[in-house]
């Protein structure tokens, strides 16, 4: 099995105290890892380390066997933030434009998208069942619909790994259920590995294949 992320003896602190201490963790292709833990236990920090936004204070984190270049986002990894953060989009963009944003590296800024790119956007929107909303204004959608669009944006590049930071916060019960089924579908049928923070321990344990508990500095991986 291919190793996507390898964390070795990693420590991280913002100021004086360590937020993450002596963490060892391997994430393989095919994993669906749920990250749980109380408020402030370091879940979002760990994701920022995985994305290369933060650098370990000690120890190592390797993405595809390499040190992530700080601030250089790899297109092999898709990222979805909390609903509140994704709705920070305050210009009148359409659903298609939002998803297209993750193709600009490929298209080139200020150049026109090609048929191929429009097809990639359509395919991603179809996967998340939002193709009918392609021309709708993003800001007119419900929280659950917006989150599906953000997932389409994250998968439009066909990443191997999708990282989600509590994507269900603030969305209604029915949308949460359908978001979990969508993630199951991406995991099982599209071979996308998943790392997801969740406060709903029962639910994440019933979907994930591994759980990492980040509490009281005691990190533990439990096979589900
Ligand atoms: N930029 C920062 N500078 C200093 N301290 C920070 C910063 N970001 C987070 N922290 C602190 O690091 C600790 C871990 O924060 P983090 O956001 O990773 O926790 P979390 O488990 O994701 O919490 P929550 O469940 O509330 O989102 C907290 O004590 C937090 O106050």
From TrEMBL:
Keywords: ATP-binding, Nucleotide-binding, Transport. Residues 5-223 form the ABC transporter domain. The keyword Transport applies. CDD domains: ABC_Metallic_Cations. It holds the Pfam family ABC_tran. It comes from the Bacteria. The keyword Signal does not apply. One of its GO terms (molecular function) is ATP binding. SUPFAM superfamilies: P-loop containing nucleoside triphosphate hydrolases. InterPro entries: AAA+_ATPase, ABC_transporter-like_ATP-bd, ABC_transporter-like_CS, Metal_Ion_Import_ABC, P-loop_NTPase. PANTHER family: METAL TRANSPORT SYSTEM ATP-BINDING PROTEIN TM_0124-RELATED. Belongs to the ABC transporter superfamily. This is Metal ABC transporter ATP-binding protein. It comes from Peptostreptococcus equinus.
């Amino acid at each position: 099995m291919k190793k996507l992320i390898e964390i070795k003896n990693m420590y991280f602190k913002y100021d004086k105290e360590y937020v993450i201490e002596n963490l060892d963790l391997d994430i393989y292709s095919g994993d669906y890892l749920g990250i749980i833990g109380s408020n402030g236990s370091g879940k979002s920090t760990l994701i920022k380390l995985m994305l290369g936004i933060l650098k370990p204070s000690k120890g190592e984190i390797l993405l595809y066997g390499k040190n992530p270049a700080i601030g250089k986002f790899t297109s092999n990894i898709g990222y979805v933030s909390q609903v509140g953060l994704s709705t920070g989009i305050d210009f009148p963009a359409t659903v298609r434009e939002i998803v297209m944003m993750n193709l600009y590296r490929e298209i080139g800024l200020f150049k026109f998208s090609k048929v191929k790119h429009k097809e990639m956007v359509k395919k991603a929107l179809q996967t998340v069942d939002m193709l009918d909303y392609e021309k709708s204004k993003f800001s007119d959608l419900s929280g659950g619909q917006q989150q599906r669009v953000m997932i389409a944006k994250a998968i439009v590049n066909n990443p191997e790994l999708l990282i989600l930071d509590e994507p269900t916060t603030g969305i209604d019960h029915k949308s949460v259920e359908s978001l979990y089924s969508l993630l199951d579908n991406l995991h099982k049928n599209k071979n996308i590995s998943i790392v997801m923070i969740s406060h709903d321990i029962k639910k994440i344990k019933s979907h994930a294949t591994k759980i990492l508990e980040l509490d009281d500095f005691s990190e533990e991986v439990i096979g589900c």
